[in-house]
Amino acid sequence: MNVENKTIIISGASRGIGRATAMLLAQHGANVIVTARNADELKQLETEATQGSVRGKIVAIAGDVASESDMAAVVRTALDQFHRIDVVINNAGYGVFKNVDEISVTEWDDLMATNVKGTFILTKAALPSMKAHGSGHIVVVASDVAKRTFAGGALYTASKYAQEAFMGALRKEVRSFGIKVTGVYSGLVDSNFHAKGHGHETSKNWLKNEDMAESMLFIVSRPAHVVIDEFMVHPLSQEY
Length: 240
Known about the structure:
The protein has six helices and nine strands; from the N terminus they run E-H-E-H-E-H-E-H-E-H-E-E-E-H-E. It is α/β, with parallel strands linked by helices and 240 residues long.
């Protein structure tokens, strides 16, 4: 589980899976640049890491993954402070669950901008540095619905299928540069992603944010010659 001194960027890190992953990686000695739109929550995370017993460092920079200039600033921060980028974890995303004829065009555009375009923008911004160093790791936190659909999930599953296709093509483009690409396909996670919120009775047997963080630590700490192309994880209580 060696991530000592690795430079890792995590989007959507103000809460949930992203936040838990940032703390765990920093505890194991990584230098983590966290980004999300909520500047206050990011600053709380940075402060908590500073006051806690973490071996690495957490640097917060607020931004919107759908903004090319914001993500360029995140990458510049990583390079200015740590001189390289080892891992990017594309975690930012949200869901809208409605029947097709109930989804507005604005809802479609906004969700696709975060879930799909955001993955593209942050990945693109980090790739030149990774190529220059001849190594790197792009992780996309998708969902098991990148491989299945359900009624009311047309918009969300479309965004996850798009991420799946993006990863498939990217994997073929960058492997010769020594860059890994991993898709993470999780089932139900007890987080604020769901309408009933974190800690609700109905989600007590789901995966925890900490379970996902430990999965992420495992994925990004493999030896240089090992790549986990796909990582699917579910709570035992969920049929798949």
